[in-house]
Design a protein that fits this description.
The protein contains 3 helices and 2 strands; from the N terminus they run H-E-E-H-H. Strand 1 and strand 2 form a beta hairpin. Helices cover 47% and strands 9% of the residues. The protein has one domain. By secondary structure, the protein is mostly helical. A two-stranded antiparallel ribbon has the order 1-2. The structure holds zinc ion (ZN). Zinc ion binds next to helix 3.
Length: 70
C-alpha cells in the first residue's frame, strides 16, 4: 500500500477515534475474540485490525457502531 494513502487513512481513523471518544455511545468492552480474530459483539463480523488499533477497546464493527450512533 502507498505510504501516503496509509498516512491519510490513519489520519482519518484518528479523527474518527476522537469523534467517537467524545460520544458516550462508545462501547469500550472490547471485541469478541473468535479463534484469535477480533469480532464485532453485535454481528460477529471480524473487526479490521486498523480499526482496533485506532480505537482500542472497540467492540463493534463500523456498521454496528454507526447504527448505535443514529
Ligand atoms: Zn457489527
Amino acid at each position: 500500500m502507498d505510504i501516503f494513502d496509509q498516512a491519510q487513512e490513519l489520519e482519518r481513523l484518528d479523527r474518527e477515534s476522537a469523534l467517537i471518544r467524545s460520544k458516550s455511545a462508545l462501547d469500550t468492552g472490547g471485541p469478541e475474540w473468535i479463534n484469535g480474530v477480533a469480532c464485532c459483539r453485535e454481528c460477529s463480523d471480524p473487526i479490521p485490525p486498523r480499526r482496533l488499533e485506532a480505537l482500542p477497546g472497540v467492540g463493534l464493527c463500523l456498521a454496528c457502531q454507526q447504527e448505535r450512533e443514529v
